[in-house]
Design brief:
Layout (H helix, E strand, L loop, with lengths): L5 H6 L27 H6 L16 H14 L3 E5 L2 H12 L5 E5 L4 H13 L3 E5 L15 E7 L11 H10 L4 E4 L17 E5 L13 E5 L2 H13 L6 H33 L4 E5 L9 H7 L6 E6 L5 H10 L15 E5 L14 E5 L5 H12 L3
Parallel strand pairs: 2-3, 2-4, 4-5, 5-6
Antiparallel strand pairs: 1-7, 6-7, 8-9, 9-11, 10-11
């Protein structure tokens, strides 16, 4: 070989590692530029069907592996990754809606989704209407000729109502309208969205899939190839991409996700059951409990609950007193999200968030982590004493 300058030698190498290496972890492939064998290969590659690698934004072996595993968990055929759960939601809405269209959103929807709906209505000429999450088959009366998408969330991630997804999907499909499901709470473990009729399943991988409170990522999963291509075009036009290192962290978390989810579930039911007997608490909003709105639907369609639930304090306690309760917790961090190993608590003023919210007392949402339930109960008990 002709002698090269040291700079060229530093940049180019003939060395290739020997084939045959195998290990359990998925390899981390960093790439913006993807190299082609020749010009013909470059021109033949199609990023939309994932039969070729074309550019880092459209995927590497690392991201393709995570997408395939997530699709398998949900029973889907196609998956697209996004930089966050909200990015995944945005990608769906912008793929399926245009000026003049109408979208239905449940009134208990994730608040950033609510804000996104308002933005679409104010700046893009798209009507965003909010419906009672417990409407069930009654949603048929809300469907309009220009309704192009029905959004669902099961359950609402703060107020915990469980919608009748099969009834909502049947009504929407009768009019040829697709249904999207935010399935983050169940993570594809306690509920598989396609089994209850959803056409699109979205998850925030920030939660149980990662499990470490250290990754932001979202996923959109479909079965229908044409629907996937519409969303893939939105993915491309919006420049959605995820980093290889974050992808690896989610892949690593998937292997223990079911074990962690079940542990969160058992601990949360224990803590919620204890709270139910406290005189300071007016309501425990946990889908596995009989008095939670939509419990019968949860019992029919779900087989788990994870670690997230809410409580409503007795109305004799002011919002400031409930804030002091949260501040007094020692083992619970104050922060959004859930699904991590550490327990969290966040107070909400529901009267300013929801139409016709029935309760006067303040609401606190708990994420029960992987600490010992008895220690969490003791911590809540001492904080209640400071109300």
């Amino acid at each position: 070989m002709t002698k090269q300058s040291i700079q060229t030698t530093l940049t180019h190498s003939d060395y290739r590692p020997p084939a045959g290496f195998a290990a359990y972890p998925t390899a981390i492939h960093h790439a913006s530029t993807v190299l082609f064998k020749d010009v013909a290969s470059m021109r033949a590659g199609d990023w939309r069907n994932k039969t070729a690698y074309t550019y880092g934004l459209h995927g590497t072996p690392t991201t393709f592996t995570l997408e395939a595993r997530l699709a398998s968990i949900e029973g889907g055929a196609h998956c697209l990754l996004a930089p966050s759960g909200l990015a995944a939601i945005s990608m769906i809405l912008l793929a399926l809606l245009k000026a003049g269209d109408d979208v239905l959103l449940p009134d208990n929807v994730y608040n950033p989704t609510r804000e996104l709906g308002r933005w679409l209505a104010s700046d893009f000429g798209i009507t965003a209407r909010f419906y009672d999450p417990l409407v069930g088959a009654g949603i048929a009366a809300l469907l309009q000729p220009n309704t192009k998408l029905v959004w669902t969330e099961a359950p609402g991630s703060v107020s915990m109502e469980v919608p009748d997804l099969p009834a909502i999907c049947a009504a929407a499909h009768d009019k040829g309208i697709p249904v999207a499901l935010d399935n983050t709470w169940a993570a594809g473990l306690a509920l598989r969205g396609f089994d209850v009729g959803a056409d699109i399943v979205m998850q925030a991988l920030t939660k149980y899939q990662s499990g470490g409170s250290d990754v932001l990522m979202g996923a959109v999963i479909t079965r229908d190839a044409a629907l996937n291509e519409r969303i893939a075009m939105s993915h491309m036009r919006l420049g959605m991409g995820v980093g290889a290192d974050d992808t690896y962290l989610v892949l690593r978390g998937l292997e223990t996700m079911k074990l962690r989810f079940d542990a969160h579930d058992a601990a949360a039911r224990r803590v919620a059951g204890w709270l139910k007997g406290r005189p300071e608490i007016a309501k425990v909003l946990h889908p596995a409990f009989e008095d939670c709105p939509g419990h019968d639907v949860w019992q029919r369609d779900f087989d788990g609950a994870g670690g997230l639930f809410s409580v409503v304090f007795d109305a004799r306690y002011s919002g400031e007193q409930v804030d002091r309760f949260v501040d007094s917790l020692a083992l619970f961090g104050i922060g959004y999200s859930w699904g991590g190993t550490h327990s969290l608590a966040v107070p909400y003023r529901m009267q300013g968030m929801r139409r016709d919210w029935p309760d006067a007392g303040a609401l606190v949402r708990f994420n029960i982590g992987l600490e010992a339930p008895d220690d969490l109960i003791a911590d809540i008990g001492q904080a209640l004493g400071k109300l």
